[in-house]
Amino acid sequence: MTTTDKTTPGNFFEDFTVGQTIGHATPRTVTEGDVALYTALYGTRFAVQSGAAFAEQVGYPRMPVDDLLVFHIVFGKTVPDISLNAVANLGYADCRFEAAVYPGDTLWATSEVIGLKETSSGKTGIVYVRSTGRNQRGETVLDYVRWVMVRKRDEASPAPDPVVPDLPGAVGPAVLGAACPTIDRGQWDTTLSGSPMRWSDYQAGERIDHVDGMTVEEADHMMATRLYQNTARVHFNQFTEGKGRFGRRLVYGGHVISLARALSFNGLANAFHVAAINGGRHVAPLFAGDTVFAWSEVTETAELPDRTDVGALRLVTHATRDRPCADFPGRTEDGYADGVILELDYWVLMPR
Amino acid sequence: MTTTDKTTPGNFFEDFTVGQTIGHATPRTVTEGDVALYTALYGTRFAVQSGAAFAEQVGYPRMPVDDLLVFHIVFGKTVPDISLNAVANLGYADCRFEAAVYPGDTLWATSEVIGLKETSSGKTGIVYVRSTGRNQRGETVLDYVRWVMVRKRDEASPAPDPVVPDLPGAVGPAVLGAACPTIDRGQWDTTLSGSPMRWSDYQAGERIDHVDGMTVEEADHMMATRLYQNTARVHFNQFTEGKGRFGRRLVYGGHVISLARALSFNGLANAFHVAAINGGRHVAPLFAGDTVFAWSEVTETAELPDRTDVGALRLVTHATRDRPCADFPGRTEDGYADGVILELDYWVLMPR
Amino acid sequence: MTTTDKTTPGNFFEDFTVGQTIGHATPRTVTEGDVALYTALYGTRFAVQSGAAFAEQVGYPRMPVDDLLVFHIVFGKTVPDISLNAVANLGYADCRFEAAVYPGDTLWATSEVIGLKETSSGKTGIVYVRSTGRNQRGETVLDYVRWVMVRKRDEASPAPDPVVPDLPGAVGPAVLGAACPTIDRGQWDTTLSGSPMRWSDYQAGERIDHVDGMTVEEADHMMATRLYQNTARVHFNQFTEGKGRFGRRLVYGGHVISLARALSFNGLANAFHVAAINGGRHVAPLFAGDTVFAWSEVTETAELPDRTDVGALRLVTHATRDRPCADFPGRTEDGYADGVILELDYWVLMPR
């Protein structure tokens, strides 16, 4: 960590070198308190993460923590070192959930710089990092690449040799499922889980409007983002943001992802586990007062090697603001339909 | 559950038949996290549900979960199947708390349709259900009747034979107290509990102004209602509600009940357990920005059979918005006094 | 407790006598749920209170609860009896954290009246109390003096003999550290804790701008204050406060203290434990919508007797509203600089 005197101004583009490993503060024990807050913030209803008796009956040793809560906590740790001076969060790739997290586990994170490229303006550069979240036993629970555009401290600094990592367009189905124990399909009660639709009921090309909408408040998204110990200033400081580009605080992009995931229960109730995120794009910002809607397309179905208990669906979920999704707004010839704020490409597991 | 393709539009009047049993999603493990959120949302101060050392000293095996938190969670489970297409929530009856709930218990719910009656408009019908909440051992923790006015899918559908259940005006005191262990009266410390007033200090006819007021915010009531996994759209979706009858999101009626109960501590500090709800009426809607006040009338006092540890008070609590209750606003000749939003008739237990 | 009929109007100046001991309701079990909410409300990142694995590695038997959460809970208990009729909260002194609090501990509080002095107006008086928070084993966890200006019930009541306690200007370093186990300095990982700066890196006279700002919402501060079961009406009741001096709800002063402490992580990341509060002054009120900033001055460094593991820093932290702190706004010739809302003098411990 670069420290100027006692406080940290965050790292600038010049502070990163390819191959560098960065350890992040602060270790974070995930508890039943976090789980309750996650429910209160999103209204999520997936049975495995809501009912211990259900989770244990289908094969989990205990009720696991929601995958996206794990993602947000690990992501939050990386912010002070990676993206405090970021101009834009450009993308995610190759994100895999590799071990289930249970209440009581302590998460911590490191990042390796895997690419650097100055932008043509000479004022910023793109930093590629692979961030890894681990538990108190050192086991990897989450691994992902993200790239952000970061300010240079000094525009006159020389550009580093550009290194752009070769990233997969999607996580292959062969490596999915490491965080999911063997599921006892016969014990999967579809009344309790909320839908009779299992993996084999979904087909590639199918589109699902998740129907419901959820309005976001300033207090909501700030509580969420503080819960994740994410320190990005744009989410919290109205005094400064009021004078900035939007005149308002921005909602953390991960908050949108969790809202979309919670809304997707209506249509994907048995998609109990996010196994991987292939890529994601925050197409436009979300502000408090806006109402979020979502729809999903199944883009691929896949079996997992040597597993007959669960199958994988590859989904592209779009979230919108103040626009219901009955007409499936998404990409257009020259960008995205009005109102689209998120396009997320990911794998979920479902009982077969 | 009626499923149109993958998403559920909720049940319409035609989907219900008398005698039908409906299993509800999603099982929900109640934790210390939920208890903390419940305190943060209402500021409740009843000693048995706040201090484990107090609860254990007076006779509970552990600190129990607030009765109304149990009610809201069970109620929330029924919403997607019973009241997603409801025009109005008409009433509750015969609600009994039958077993204490402790952190770690997993709650799930079923409903039996016990009555159906088409309304004179031919556009809606009244559905009566008995809903039952159970724990992970299958024990009933809560049982209640509610009736709601539900839209017909097709106005041309024939009316079913009307069946209107015979409902008790009140729960009889003889069946109260199943969820309450024997209380050691000598161990009940009235300094810690907040009041020297025990059961015998209250008389039928007594009216108590609870004095304090609590302002509701959008973030508050939405966090509460999501915590209960209650999916009723009117509480969450400003985009749609902004175009609707009120132009705003409605606060969940149960949120009002919990606010009134928390306010009632000032005057009823030793009323540690809600044993039954005889009936309730949401007289007018509550919106964010309004301040809730409450007052109660003791309408009956009762001994419990074979118990000398606790006695029962029957209360009618009124909640108001933006109207202090020093003048006890309630029923008038042609309805309710201005500002009244809730009339709740229930039984509480107090140490003798 | 003075009770008028069934509800309590709070105590007036005439109800207090020097030497009187007041037991407070309601005992409160602190849980992992409270810890999660505390994180969500402030975004605090000190490693000892965030990561159980970190806390245990450096010498705690388990992850302790944040010191200020303990303070707020104990303080909240005293409000109904001490300050419900307070006109002003005048000061704190001699506040010591004497035992660590862990999830599962039940806190309760008593206060002793140690001073009384009628004010010259004859309408109010100053009440000095020493309040003590204890756990379920009766061990003192927190002890502090505060004084408040309280209304008289009747202006004609005679003034009591004035008794003004002799209060220390600061807690002496010799008594600090009772709530802190021996810390294994070699196990203190400064990457995980967020800063390489240990006790010996700080000097008296040093000033640190904590840089970041946090905007407060009505829902935030009310959830916090309800979580602490603090019943002071000015925080909750817009109906009444809307007609009052400010036209708005006031944010609980302790909320400002916790915000300032959380912001101080940036510059004081290893200041893991608040050991004592020497004094504090709420210079001006805070309202929802305002953004809080903070800066600190190190006013003294001290070794602890017989301890080589940790050292103490005496800090004076100032919080402001809508004013960044790069120019260190504080006391001026005739008061405080514009925007200053808090001046807090306290001791923190850091690993040596």
TrEMBL record, chains A, B, C:
<dbReference type="Pfam" id="PF19315">
    <property type="entry name" value="MC_hydratase"/>
</dbReference>
<dbReference type="InterPro" id="IPR016790">
    <property type="entry name" value="Thiol_ester_hydratase_Rv0216"/>
</dbReference>
<dbReference type="InterPro" id="IPR052342">
    <property type="entry name" value="MCH/BMMD"/>
</dbReference>
<protein>
    <submittedName>
        <fullName>MaoC family dehydratase</fullName>
    </submittedName>
</protein>
<dbReference type="GO" id="GO:0016829">
    <property type="term" value="F:lyase activity"/>
</dbReference>
<dbReference type="InterPro" id="IPR048274">
    <property type="entry name" value="MC_hydratase"/>
</dbReference>
<dbReference type="InterPro" id="IPR029069">
    <property type="entry name" value="HotDog_dom_sf"/>
</dbReference>
